[in-house]
Records
---
Amino acid sequence: MADFSIGDKLRLTVFGQSHGPAVGCVIDGFPAGRTIDRDRLAAFMARRAPGQNAWSTPRKEADEPEILSGLNEKGQTCGAPIAVLIRNTNTRSGDYAALQALPRPGHADLAAWRKYGKAWDGRGGGAFSARLTAPVCFAGALCMQELERLGVSLAAHIARVGGILDAVPDTVQPALPLYAPGAFPVIDEEKGEKMRQEIEKARQAGDSVDGDVRCLVTGLRPGLGGPYFGGLEGKISQALFGIPAVKGVQFGDTRRYGSENNDAYRVQNGSVVSSTNHCGGILGGISTGMPLHFLVSFKPTPSIALPQQTVDLRTMKEGALTVQGRHDPCVVPRAVPVVEAVTALMLTDLMLQGE
Amino acid sequence: MADFSIGDKLRLTVFGQSHGPAVGCVIDGFPAGRTIDRDRLAAFMARRAPGQNAWSTPRKEADEPEILSGLNEKGQTCGAPIAVLIRNTNTRSGDYAALQALPRPGHADLAAWRKYGKAWDGRGGGAFSARLTAPVCFAGALCMQELERLGVSLAAHIARVGGILDAVPDTVQPALPLYAPGAFPVIDEEKGEKMRQEIEKARQAGDSVDGDVRCLVTGLRPGLGGPYFGGLEGKISQALFGIPAVKGVQFGDTRRYGSENNDAYRVQNGSVVSSTNHCGGILGGISTGMPLHFLVSFKPTPSIALPQQTVDLRTMKEGALTVQGRHDPCVVPRAVPVVEAVTALMLTDLMLQGE
Amino acid sequence: MADFSIGDKLRLTVFGQSHGPAVGCVIDGFPAGRTIDRDRLAAFMARRAPGQNAWSTPRKEADEPEILSGLNEKGQTCGAPIAVLIRNTNTRSGDYAALQALPRPGHADLAAWRKYGKAWDGRGGGAFSARLTAPVCFAGALCMQELERLGVSLAAHIARVGGILDAVPDTVQPALPLYAPGAFPVIDEEKGEKMRQEIEKARQAGDSVDGDVRCLVTGLRPGLGGPYFGGLEGKISQALFGIPAVKGVQFGDTRRYGSENNDAYRVQNGSVVSSTNHCGGILGGISTGMPLHFLVSFKPTPSIALPQQTVDLRTMKEGALTVQGRHDPCVVPRAVPVVEAVTALMLTDLMLQGE
Amino acid sequence: MADFSIGDKLRLTVFGQSHGPAVGCVIDGFPAGRTIDRDRLAAFMARRAPGQNAWSTPRKEADEPEILSGLNEKGQTCGAPIAVLIRNTNTRSGDYAALQALPRPGHADLAAWRKYGKAWDGRGGGAFSARLTAPVCFAGALCMQELERLGVSLAAHIARVGGILDAVPDTVQPALPLYAPGAFPVIDEEKGEKMRQEIEKARQAGDSVDGDVRCLVTGLRPGLGGPYFGGLEGKISQALFGIPAVKGVQFGDTRRYGSENNDAYRVQNGSVVSSTNHCGGILGGISTGMPLHFLVSFKPTPSIALPQQTVDLRTMKEGALTVQGRHDPCVVPRAVPVVEAVTALMLTDLMLQGE
């Protein structure tokens, strides 16, 4: 139902196709009376934008969001749905023309064909394209500004690229990093250098590589979420799995035995906290007041330069396919702000519900 | 919103508390005209029932479901909501009496206290109790009978207990196991024996141990699910995270490099299939027609016999707590049918929607 | 989707069939820590119960609700879903046996047959039966107690039976009536007497008669609801049309010309109020702070004693049908608390959402 | 929740403000592979557009919808969300400038102020403006083309303006009218002439007048909708009350006594039909297969040229207000296609759900 929407009281609806006229979104339910910090919003979106450096696709996008609705004369949010439009300016359809009948392995092509039939727009992945994460980031940046008002901060980093792991942050009292556009979002810059080498190696081999993103949230009040199907994990994971290429989500860092996994309680400054935070800040589906932390796994970019075996749907003959076009050999660096964005969205929704 | 409900066209609502009069559920939207195979339904529920063997809690439950609504005179489903009641017959409140003010580490106690306040019923975990998975299994068993009519089969097995891994099934053409009540659901019985030893070891140490469940689905038509927030992974994971103690969900078995992770297409019996199935039967959020497979991670049972540190909420003094009562030292064996149940539920919902 | 459920944050799910073992409901999202006034709850439910007086069906129901879940040891709501069971004790199936193939004009029989097929349980209307409004009243009575805590009062009265109109209440500063069980809920007792005569006349003629219910709500804070599809009228009407036999809903008492319909603003006790209340306390889908008022139209009971023409679905032959059994010749008197109940439910849901 | 969205499987989200840069909508879930008849779509939208004739506001709007997403290279729908943008070209803010602090009687101004606070954009009614019905009509026109493929037709007419009633159509076998843009949509052209006189009279008096719209749907299969809260009446009315100025909805044309209201069954061409159709084609919330018909009541336009009493929210002083600007003295003529649009939307949604 409504594949391109998420959220209850705060509801995001995205639209667009990779090679259509535009992408964009509608954000319904955002509080009225907020002045949006446009510079920070642009800086956040720039973190996702392609074409900035060696480790991302050279495709350039202006990504200038036009706000069509939702602001009053003073530029404050006014209660009307916030609608945002980002024109597609750099769509090279030729790259993808023959692909419609030659489903790319690891891509949605064949699945989309089976769901939508021949009318499906396969150019650049159509509506499955990660291009739609640009408006998701717009919405997320807005929500992060709202969360900040509520005392909540969140940040993600690259936890892994291929076999290279970043340092593990303190999950009891984490220092949240704040990444500049263009920065490679890791905690340990040495590990970051190795990751970039791993990505470069994959690129030169015409291949791609997988990785993980870890997200941390601090300042969340206890009592958010609910038991059973209303749990924080379920709500957040539903949104995270909406990000293209996500294949796994893990909350906390479970230890093997109960005796080491249970986070013992103690008193700090007059309130009950836990000494460790293996539960990831969630017990029984409800926020405990400790920082939230979870790991999101991304598969390697399916678009690779190496020849792959596929089937021509017109002739039902097997044959080799070489995917043209420019692609990130690893989706993880640019996925970091997207993970932050959908997390911010779901948490803002829950807080607005008083949940 | 509506923590105890899940599903759109087929909607499950569960209710009950561990130490209240009853648990149960309402299933709205189940097709009319079905004759329920009660014996198989009972056999399925028995797989979850406690007290059957060494590796589960000795608490005995009759678990006799009474169907209050939803059947016609001939015992067929009639379109009315199917309401089911399971009386609680073996509730030893004394075990838990003092716990309300002494939150058990790793449990929902403190989080629930913060959400619901003092009125929260903490006896046996209240509404957070895994006891509510009994009606979930009732609903799931019903859906599995419906899926069978539609040519869909599903089965889960224990993929891991502590450090012991079960054999990995073929995910291209899996042979789905069918487990009898009382069976220990593994593929490799030798590994099963080692897992039971691991569980027994944890029990004797007054400790508990974690593990994974893998679920496989065959016969699913391609085209089910949708892009972005309508993806199969998001919908299924939301339901899975509703199962107590689930902390992670991983779809497919992602390989490190794109060249090995992409599942190449080939022709078999006139239709396009993939040679491998690392994507877990889902691309772009949509079923590909290959078997679905995913891994669900469970934390170790938080209830352990060892003393743990907690805080008395009345005095705000730290102190040791020893959890009384009888508990599974590993939730995984009995969680296997619950994973099957919620998966069946979500897939039936999607199929009824024509999605 | 989920025909038997309504509400977002507070969600009611009803179940049961007229001649099945029981009816009941699950209320998810009701605040924790409330002590239910059981006597007032029973008194409210008694207003809907049949068999009390000349103007309702002699079918007797114990209507003893058993609370299966949702209360703690002290009997307070505890955050768990509140599940309620009402056993059916007086089901005379024989009355309805042959009806399955002889659809009763004005009833859901044929429509249900077409939706659910032959498996549909037509006995007493099955799940379409007004018997399911008993658990709706349970839920509504609960919500009325919650609304009272929030300073909101509501009451409905019979506005019309056939051609007889009750007095029209002051809609600017209404005095809300409080009806005892067994009372005939009108403002003007003389009109009430005439209505009862109208009902009695219909009964003696083997016929039935239509009517209207007016509902008034005071104390509602301004700002509840929302524009467009989030409007109060839409939300409340969706719930009202869920009551069997409702065919129309009218908010406010619109005047013909704008100059007489617009409610002029004035200052009273330092706040802005309106001198009249033709808008029914709602403008732009949002509560204005003035009393809510709306009219709900009920069709005449379709079950009448006169012979009617129908078609035997087995033979496709036209023929006469005489409906047996005992039925209210006018549904309106017993519908009054049901209107109150669903109104209370929707308003509580909105208030809990902070909407 | 999500005030500006409606529908389950087919979901419409509208956005915009009367005096903002644009209005528009996103339609998620529309079937892929449809070629849109753009001429008929434009003709439908023209029926709602203002400025065409004596009985509507002279404000001119280009109303040129730009489709931003949802079509493939051939212009067919492709499964991606259909996003539509209509720029606002004729926004005279000066007309409304002082109104923010002077709530107009009968308008949403004060209610919006109370919901959104001072940041609310009151220019031209902001997001409450009927201007947003332009994208609603776009979506409705699309759905009407889909319904036509499924054999369903629908049309509405002006049933009443002030005291003037249009002819009542045959509701058993109605001949659906097809209105050209610019036509005054009535069945009886003489009555139409009198209605226009009534509207003109109101305009000259600086006043406005109320009215009703009747909608008819033919070709709908039996079995659509559901019992209780899933009923057709509830779903359709929720959408209808989303149209600005709607205050009442009445399904069918209920007769006073059961004996005349019950629609007797008979056999026609081998299938069961009813001789009359007082139930409006719906019984038990489910379509019977007979034509749907219902009446929608609109209040008189709140914007009138006569001076009205209001309160200056800055000074809390009562005073006279004269609303400037150009307004329809009767919303009903232009509301006719809007009623058709939201009806088409809800029916398409239900049919896509297989409900």
---
Amino acid sequence: MIIESQSDHENAWGWLKALPEKLWGKVVDVAEKIKKLGEDDPRRIIHSLKVGLALTLVSLFYYIQPLYDGFGANSMWAVLTVILVCEFSVGATLGKGLNRMLATLSAGALGIGVHSLATLSGDTGQPIILGFFVFLIAATVTFARFIPAMKARYDYGLLIFILTFSLISVSSYRENDQVLVMAHQRLTTIMVGSFIAIVTCICIRPVWIGENLNNLVANNMEKLGKSLEGFGREYFSIPEEGPSMDDKSFLQGYKSVLTSKETEQAMANLARWEVWNFRFGFRHPWKQYLKIGTLSRQCAYKVDALNSYLNTKIQFQTPSEFQSKIQEPCTKICSESGQALKELALGLKKVMNQPTSVYLHIERSKMAAENLKSLLNTTSLCENDNLQVIIPTGAVALILVDIVPYIEKISEALHELASLAHFKRVEARVSP
Amino acid sequence: MIIESQSDHENAWGWLKALPEKLWGKVVDVAEKIKKLGEDDPRRIIHSLKVGLALTLVSLFYYIQPLYDGFGANSMWAVLTVILVCEFSVGATLGKGLNRMLATLSAGALGIGVHSLATLSGDTGQPIILGFFVFLIAATVTFARFIPAMKARYDYGLLIFILTFSLISVSSYRENDQVLVMAHQRLTTIMVGSFIAIVTCICIRPVWIGENLNNLVANNMEKLGKSLEGFGREYFSIPEEGPSMDDKSFLQGYKSVLTSKETEQAMANLARWEVWNFRFGFRHPWKQYLKIGTLSRQCAYKVDALNSYLNTKIQFQTPSEFQSKIQEPCTKICSESGQALKELALGLKKVMNQPTSVYLHIERSKMAAENLKSLLNTTSLCENDNLQVIIPTGAVALILVDIVPYIEKISEALHELASLAHFKRVEARVSP
């Protein structure tokens, strides 16, 4: 027991001695993570500085006497508004700013109306009428926040509506004569605050969420294309052209596409606030991006199914007759479809029409798919073929045949997007 | 031309006449949607009434003289807090309330510190020092909101930190002597507001987000189980036991599992605030749910791959030799794995250990999978087998063999959850 407690003691001492080092390690670790966060997306640092700047600007209302004379302690609402409205992207900032202004305006008007009604009913009646309306409006508007269409775009506005209405109607009980002044000052300060937030957000290195959505959808297609190409080379053991890639991470690229649905949805909701954008123009068809996203995701499920066959890969070093027959159209589908996806992604990133070479790639994959189908339909089996080879290879072939129509649908959806949004036309060189 | 414009005129008249009917149709349509929203989840109606009630309670601070004497116009902060903190679930309400209180406390203290520092530097220096600190703190804390670990749990707190700090330090410039009183009153009113919101949320029909997560994960497993069972019956054309189900929607049930990742993640983040729940006890292992969710999703991708073979289903009315050989183990895997998933889901819903019958089902599916594997390895082909039948059926068999380990992993993860969370032990009758 003595020995044990001695060793316990030593352990504790050792632990204590190692503590500063451990703590320092933690600090360095956290600092590195923070540094990486900034390096990954320097727009985050710029956004932080923008918030600081907007806040410093709005606090001038306190420091400069003539400005302070105008609003007095109500300048508080301007400060509050800047902090709450300043968001990372233009879409989010515009959405919050407009929501906040509209909600304050309408709730203020309603609050004044209810206040007038309540004053009519004397000293005892007033709090009862006020209380009744606050309950009614709060409950109704809270329920309205559950309506999906409202939640998507006006959730913040509905919250501010309840807030402003309650504050104005409840405090009107104590400041009977001041209600109009109060409501007016509140509205003005909130408009000033929103204005400062929106101007800072748009004028200094703006982050357009619509462009982020455009790039996200394009990157997802690119990842799919790379995974598909990579699968073809891996499964059929084709030596790489160009420098060999030991890093097989491109094979896993499609995985982030599987779960991107909610991110895309949220971004599209915010992008709709960016009614005008110098790259996309006025009223861009954001819904079309969701359609393309859904098709990409369905395609990603197929690629996932393909990838599960990589684990049970059959060596193609000495291919059976069946394998050597289907190998050519299979690799053709992988490379042509992958190429088509990558070119579609590039076109979308540059906000231009699909180059005609995409149609060629799709035509070629369709031909390869037809070829593969007829091979599967006409090939008869020999006795020496065995099931362990035929089934997985054949299943891969079936999935590849299945993928081609999705690539075509994605291309059609992109074409629709390009015509809806008047993308610029590009005559790409056709390389037959 | 005259005829045309006449018909135009008639059209316009007809459109005008139909307008009230159309509008009425729209109104009825919206009303029905709203009614359905309430019927789908009556907790939404209760939540709306709760918000109304909490707000009426907090506005008593204005109506009742002794209460108003205590806080005066600062009661506004209590009203504001109730509206902002009242959320649908206990987890969200607790998270926001605690965030708000802690952030107000710490930012208030820092604000007072900076104010004291600024007063030392005279009339000209004061706004410069205040402005500098507001910029610094706002920029730093805004950047901290990008750190994923902070964003997940303390995003709201960080926002309130900037807000309180700015309000107190900036307005201290105008109300030099009042800073301590102001900070103190702000803190007290916010605590009262948060307290009212939290009590209303917990005491009246509370919605525990942790229970929702528990049920979501359980329901997802159940949907997977049903889809898997349904697939087995559909693909191998097995007549239904019991009443026939014309509605094939159960086949599509797995689809919502594919995209549930972000919902689960968000729910787990909120559930961690519910440190105590009368059903789950103290510090429930919410992370484990995410692990189960991920496994379910991987299983759902497999089911999606299976379902794509339903479209190209081969009639099993006159099965080939190969088909009749593998049909039995395939349907066995579908029914036993599906049954296992359904029982696991039921156990999780009831918050108890897995019934031993689950292990039996899993054992049986594993045996069937082994059986199927050896069938695929040993069967030799006859000349009259054709590829169009062998490949898709064989591919289905391969995916089914692949699914079994996932079911086992899900069961293990659930077992781990049960032991971590001390689920109650249930001795289920074993039906061999």
